[in-house]
Amino acid sequence: MQCSWKAVILLALASIAIQYTAIRTLTSKPFQLCPVPSPQNCGLLGGPETESPMEGRAGCDDYPYFSFNTSRKTHIMVLATTRSGSSFVGQLLNQHADIFYLFEPLYHVQTTLIPRLSHSRNAADRRVMLGASRDLLRSLYGCDLYFLESYIKPAPANHTTDKLFRRGASRALCSQPVCDAFGPTDANVEEGDCFKKCAALNMTLAADACREKRHVAIKVVRVPEIGDLRALVEDPRLNIKVIQLVRDPRGILSSRIETFRDTYRLWRIWRATGRRPYNLDLSQLTVVCEDFLGSVSTGLSHPHWLKGKYMLVRYEDLSRNPLLKTMEIYDFLGLSMDKSVEEWIQTNTRGSTELSAKHKYGTVRDSAANAESWRLKLSYDMVEYTQATCQKVLHQLGYKAVKSAEELKNMSLSLVQDKTFVPFS
Ligand SMILES: *[C@@H]1O[C@H](CO)[C@@H](O)[C@H](O)[C@H]1NC(C)=O
Ligand SMILES: *[C@@H]1O[C@H](CO)[C@@H](O)[C@H](O)[C@H]1NC(C)=O
Ligand SMILES: *[C@@H]1O[C@H](CO)[C@@H](O)[C@H](O)[C@H]1NC(C)=O
Ligand SMILES: *[C@@H]1O[C@H](CO)[C@@H](O)[C@H](O)[C@H]1NC(C)=O
């Protein structure tokens, strides 16, 4: 019995190695497709070099008959970390009529593979997670939702489950034909209502709904760095566009202390007593900064494989200027922003605090006025420590360090420097 867990990890690593080989083989070979003049194949004819919907269409010039309806599915990924405003960005996509949105499906991978560790730093664990995650994401972008079932506990029977994580955050899964509890006039179903009123989720119907939509968007907070996604980004069957969301690590820390009360208990003790507990898990902070640094360094160095596929968004910019930033995001995706997205922004960024208390993971309270409110919540000690630990990434992302408690608490002085991150195209 002693060795059984090691055996499991070894097995898992072996299976990842096999996956890797499979992916390598696949990506290194040109993608063979019969040149059938069908809309589905059209975008693929140009191979991985012609990725945008516009270019995809140009590739179809030989078949003008089809050219009006040939844009490929876009596979959108919101790459973020917890408490960085990813629910907000997810909603900006979820509200769009042509987008099928899934909220953090990798949750199921993590709870199945690494049940006890919420943010494992063990390198072997991370590799296991990553291999499985890439596989799952690839399937989900292809609307193969059955693949997810192997990670759901208890295992769904007859392709039906009531255990899909945060199902209610996905509009398509709370409306017809997937759920009959609400009519087309129930525009914005509350997440809790969806959970209560919809019957168990029929994965077959969910997959059909996914295929019906033009695009698929997935929110991911369990992949450390953009570099970990290279195999997916380069997969010629996919048309991935990554929106990487970052936030001031000081703000993330503050938000996590409020939200994950058990996991961040020692940080609360530090804040309350002014003394750093000797057994504080500093990696809860350092991992965020290391992952951001790795990711952002890769993203901003413009490697060829990310060309046209990577956009860096600072949460603070989105909070200040939600409509404008959202337009930029849709621009990058090559999609037009629809009315419901705009309306959702209008109703959810007014800074109303009434709704917020109810929703631990709500998006309302994270609106503009709150982007820098962490400054009033963290002690100067903690801020100083974070600044020392995350110095490089703060600088890279344009977050100003403070030199005194007075400066920290002086809200007329913003710590977010103007900085533009032009999508690499
Ligand atoms: C374009 O494709 C969509 C989805 O496949 C389909 O519903 C629609 O009818 C098509 N439009 C035209 C003009 O063929
Ligand atoms: C699954 O479907 C079969 C055939 O319709 C039925 O007999 C069985 O009871 C179902 N299982 C569950 C767990 O609902
Ligand atoms: C799920 O939906 C499919 C397609 O409509 C249907 O054939 C199947 O019977 C449904 N499954 C259950 C368990 O109701
Ligand atoms: C806050 O910062 C502003 C801008 O630098 C400065 O003019 C003001 O004196 C500061 N207020 C306090 C109380 O330090």
UniProtKB/TrEMBL annotation:
Membrane topology listed for this record: Single-pass type II membrane protein
Signal peptide start-end: 1-22
GO cellular component term of the entry, any: Golgi membrane
Cellular compartment(s): Golgi apparatus membrane
Start and end residues of each Sulfotransferase domain: 74-398
One example GO MF annotation: keratan sulfotransferase activity
Known EC number: 2.8.2.-
Keywords associated with the record: Carbohydrate metabolism, Glycoprotein, Golgi apparatus, Membrane, Signal, Signal-anchor, Transferase, Transmembrane, Transmembrane helix
Predominant location: Golgi
GO biological process: carbohydrate metabolic process; keratan sulfate proteoglycan metabolic process; N-acetylglucosamine metabolic process; sulfur compound metabolic process
Broad EC category: transferase
Family: Belongs to the sulfotransferase 1 family. Gal/GlcNAc/GalNAc subfamily.
Protein name: Sulfotransferase
Lineage, uppermost ranks: Eukaryota, Metazoa, Chordata, Craniata, Vertebrata
